[in-house]
Every structure is written in structure tokens, then in C-alpha cells.
Amino acid sequence: MSLKEKIQAEVLKLEGPIVVFGAGGFIGANLIRTILQYRNDVFAVTSKPFIPWRLDDINPKNILHCNIIKKDQVEALFKEHRFQTIFDLVAYGAYSKQSNVDLIYETNFMGLLNLLEISSQFSIKAFVHAGSSSEYGLNASGPSEDAVLEPNSHYSVTKVGAAHMIKYYGTLKEMPVANLRYYSIFGPWEEPDRLIPQLIDKGMHGTYPPLVQPDISRDFVFVDDAVLATILSANKIQNIRGKSLNIASNKKTTIRDIASAIKEIFNLSADPAWGNMPNRKWDLKEWYGNAALAKELLGWQNETSLIDGLRTTYEWQKNYSMPLYEKKLVQDKIRYKLTAVIACYKDAQAIPFMHDRLTKTFTKIGVDYEIIFVNDCSPDNTAEVLQKIVNDDDHVIAIEHSRNFGSQSAFLSGMEISTGDGVILLDGDLQDPPELIEPFYEEWQKGFDVVYGRRVAREGNQTLVSFYKLFYRLFRSVSYVPMPLDAGDFSLMDRKVVNEIIKLPETDQFLRGLRAWVGFKQTGVDYVRPERMFGVTTNNWRKNIGWARKAIFSFSFVPLELLTYGGIALTGLSFIAIIIQILLYFIQPGNPHGVTTIIVLILFFGGIQMLGISTLGEYQAKIIEEVKKRPKFIRKNIYRKVY
Questions:
Q1: From residue 164, how far is each of 29, 135, 141, 400 by CA, in Å?
Q2: What is the percent of the chain with per-residue pLDDT over 90, rounded to a whole number?
Q3: Higher-confidence residue: 310 or 431?
Q4: pLDDT of res. 282
Q5: How far is residue 58's CA from residue 60's CA, in Å, rounded to a whole number?
Q6: pLDDT tens across 81-140, in order?
Q7: For residue 308, how many other CB atoms are within 10 A of its CB?
Q8: Contact (Cβ atoms closer than 8 angstroms) between residue 371 and residue 346
Q9: What percent of the chain stands above pLDDT 70?
């Protein structure tokens, strides 16, 4: 039976529905493509909201988006699809460019923990995890599975931890799980900057890429053999439950051997120049495997020779790779994900323009992105407008509130479910220009954790403009936290800032004040705030005074201090008035006389007392609101694109 026939037979045995986490990666893409040749009850899961370059031609109905670091996302996925066979090929840190240490541990360890914990709540048939030969670290010369693990990088440490986690869940929790330690897998869809794709690319042009020392060895396995081993592991999971298996060719192949094969395939006349490429600090001279246990428990062994695997990879790379690799290189430039949170109230006309301008801005600056529109129970047709946009664009999420909770709650509602490295807050009326995100992003990349828009001028009613400027200066002078001048909610906040604000327990929140209160490194970007594009403003003098009260009573104790000082001053004046009254009684008997003075004094002190009581009442009302601990908002619905 040929390798292809074996794969087909094993694919048909799998219990469905099937899911491949990490399907956008090299092995994951080959696995999902192989399974889709024979059945359709399989889903590719990627962490990005866009479709990765390796999956561009796959039916979107078979592609799901989920970040395994987010447990709620994993749980929602399992509840909806009830997966029976799980292939986990998610990994971060295997390549030198993947250097974020926190993300290495979160992805490779905590992400796996989330998958196992959620899987344990369902009656799954098999769970196969992609481990790595890196688990052996310094002990890399043909080790068996029970050899000592000597991790030599953060990536290696996390993969060792993952292997132990698999053992725990498989043996003590009796889950059908196993760990495969892949060696150097190669073949179609591999990263274009890896050794074999580079050798083939240069070979097609009659030369060699820079190479390390010729005697460095590796254990190369063609990807089709790795796919068969992966599927066999799922079908024979009871034989290997809780175990780790080496997926290797059992052959030590040197870089000289590979160069010789490339020379033969491309009929190159010259020999490569050795030692021009520096060794990476974690590289080992001897790194090859022992797959005896895989043969014993799975009946698997590597079948494709190195030369045949290279020829197959060459044919694929020659015919299909260039446009895909070019797109891959574009996607590789995407380092960050930004989330735009838009508070919408009576903004139905502006929303399509907001979506279009945001999309163009994010595309221009080259980031992954999501756009979260929060419909704060708008009385117009905002819900219908958002539903259409969500159906057309998988970057968009729409939240619908059960009633109008206000813009601050709308922003918080979006911030809570956002997944971006940075979060941008915008009003839905387009008075916050989306194009300003580009300079925000530039400042954020310089290391600023908060970048806010500073309104150096405003279009519209200049009386209101003067009031706003006066308020911001008054607010700054009385606040116990340094407040930026002329800065509204429009801002880009780093993920760590967003996380801190979300954790704050207070119910009546004033975000631009809280943004200043949490601290971190902040800066402003000047802009002119335009008038609304559509309709009329929902603000009025009463609402503006309400905003001013909210700000001052949330971040200042000056009103209470003024009452204290006023009380002291008035008490002093009272004593002075008493003395003057006594003196006048003896100096000018019968004076003062009349009721006017008494009425004025009564009204004056009565007004002072009422002002004092109302000031105390403002603070007391805030205390009552906080003590109630009501939720800041209630979500009625969350809409995402459904395939």
C-alpha cells in the first residue's frame, strides 16, 4: 500500500468532527489539506481574524478563528462544534523571529492547558499534541523517549512542560491524549526562509544559500510521513495515551548530504561555500532521532527518502510557491493587532464611513485588526447597519446593549472582549478622525503606552468650545491626578493599560480620568476636531454640566476642601460680626435696624448651607452607586460573521 493510500485509509477512520488548531502553520496546513481531500467534517482553527496565506484557497466554512490563550473562546468553540478528534499544532518560539518570551509561555503552555481543560469536559476520542525534538535540548543525539530532557531555550522549556502536562492528563486523568516529538519536517508550505526552501530557491537559480558547517546533522522527515504519523496517533490513541513519541527518520543527515542532493537535483557544477552563515546560539552539531517506539506502538516509520522528498518539494515550490510566498512575506510584516472600539448612538449614517475609513487606515499601517461597534441601544437603524457590516467583514464584531448605558459603558463593553495589542476608542459620529490612528500608532511604537488626541481646535459652536477649554483647565487645576488638557476619550491604549482599566471595580467610570489615573507613559497628538458628519450632537448644556460634575467629583476633593475653608471663613466672619454688633450697640444705640440685613444674611447662609449639602450629596450619591455594585452594562447580543 502506498503512502497516499495509507493516509486515505487512516483519514477515513477518524472520529468527526475533527479540528486542527494551528492550521495556519506548516504541518497544520498540510494536515488540514490532507484530511479535506477525503472528508469535509474538519475545521482549521487560526488565531488571526484573517485567513493565513497557507489556507487561502480553502472554503471559509472550514476555517474558524480562536486564540487558545483565551479560555472563553476555546470553550465557545467546543460547545458549538463538539469536536471528537483534536489535533493541536499550535506553537510559538520555534523560529528566531518569534522572540516574545511571555507569548512563548502563554501559547505553548497556558494555551495547551486551556485546550486540555475544555476538552476534558467533552467525550473526545483523541487529542494529539505537536511536541518537538527541542524537548531533548542538549541531549539530542538519537535519544529514546525516556531519555533525560535537557531544555536549552525558552521554547524548549515550554515544550517539556507541555509533554509533562500531556502525561498527567493521559495517565492520571485517563484522557486520550498523546505528544508527538517532530524532528526536522520539510515539504510543501514550509516557511520560505527555512533551510530547504532556501536551498531549492537558490538551486533553481544555479547556486546555494549561505550554509553553516557541513558536518552539522539533522533528522529530516517529509511532511506526508509526519501527517500519516499524526493521523495514526489519533486512531491508535489508546496505545499511546499519555506518551510522547519521536517522529523521526532514524537517519543522521548532514548539511553536506542535503547540499549533495540539491547538487544532484539541479545539476549544479560548483560546491557550496561552507561556514558563511553563523550558527545560532541554540544549535547543536548532532540532532537526530530514534523512532523505534513509534514503529512499535503505531506501526509507523518514515517512508519517503530525502531525495524524493526534496524533488516533491521542488515541484510544488516551482509551480505554486511564489505568489503565496509573497503574500506570506506581507503577512510576516504584521507584528501587531489593533482593536478599534466605537461607541454608537444615533450614528447609523456615519457607521459605514467609519468602517471604510478604519479599514483603509489599518491596511495602510500594516496591522492585523478588529473593529468592535457597540450599539448602545440606539433608537435609529444602527442594529441593521451593523448586521450588514458584520456579515460582510470578519474583522468586525457588533455588540448590542439591552438599554442605553452611556458612552463610557459602551467603551468598556468593547474593551472587555477586545483582543488587540492596542485598543483605540472612538466616538461613532466621526468627530474622532480614524486617520489619526496612524500617528497614534507611530507614537505607540516609540514606547508610549497611551496616545491620546489633543483637541487644539474645534469646529462648530465657539461658545461651547470656550466652555470646553475652560472646563479642562479647571478640571486639571482641581484634580488630584495630572490630567491632560483638551483630551477626550479618543486614544490608543496599550493592552496592559486596557487590562488595568478593565480591572477597576468602580461602576460610575470616567475613562479619560481613569486613563490618566492608571499612569504609564503617555503622550498626546494634536488635531482639529471636526463637526458631526451627520445629524446633530446628542450633547447639550445639561449633559455637558453633567460630564463636568462626573469628572470633578470622581477625581477631586477640592469641593469638600472649599466647604471646610468656607466654613472656617464664615465662622470667623460671624465672630467679627458679633463683636461689631456689640460695639455698635453701645456706640450707636438702636443701630443697625431693619430687616433687610437679616434677610440678606439668612439667604446668604442658607444658600451656603444648601450648596454644602448638595456637594456632600454628590459624593454620597457616588458612594451609593458604587455600593450597589450593579453591572456597568448588559450585553443583549454579540454579532460575528457566521460562515
A1: 26, 11, 21, 43
A2: 30
A3: 310
A4: 44
A5: 6
A6: 999 999 999 998 877 767 778 888 999 999 999 999 999 999 999 999 999 999 998 888
A7: 12
A8: no
A9: 77
Q: How many CA atoms, within 13 angstroms, populate the side-chain half-sphere of residue 420?
A: 30
C-alpha cell at position 226: 509526519
| Preceding amide of 151 cis, omega within 30 | no
How far is Cα 579 from Cα 574, in angstroms, rounded to an integer?
A: 9
Instruction: Convert 235-300 into a string of H (helix), E (strand) and C (coil).
Output: HCHHHHCCCEEEECCCCCEEHHHHHHHHHHHHCCCCCCCECCCCCCCCCCCCCECCCHHHHHHHCC
Dig out the grid coordinates for 600 from the structure. Answer: 440678606
- Cα 453 to Cα 470: distance, rounded to the nearest angstrom: 18
CA distances from residue 295 to 2, 31, 126, 141, 298 in whole angstroms, order as listed: 17, 20, 19, 19, 5
> Residue 146 corresponds to which cell in the numbers above?
525516556
The answer to whether 373 touches 428, Cβ cutoff 8 Å, is yes
pLDDT of residue 102: 85
Q: Residue 595, exposed/middle/buried by CB under 10 A (0-12, 13-18, 19+)?
A: exposed
pLDDT digits (tens, 9 = 90+) for 510-566: 777 778 878 888 888 888 877 766 655 655 555 556 555 565 556 565 665 566 666
Cell of 491: 486614544
| Res 193 pLDDT > 50 | yes
DSSP β-ladder status, 635-639 and 396-401: antiparallel
Helices 382-392 and 351-365: crossing angle, nearest 10°? 30
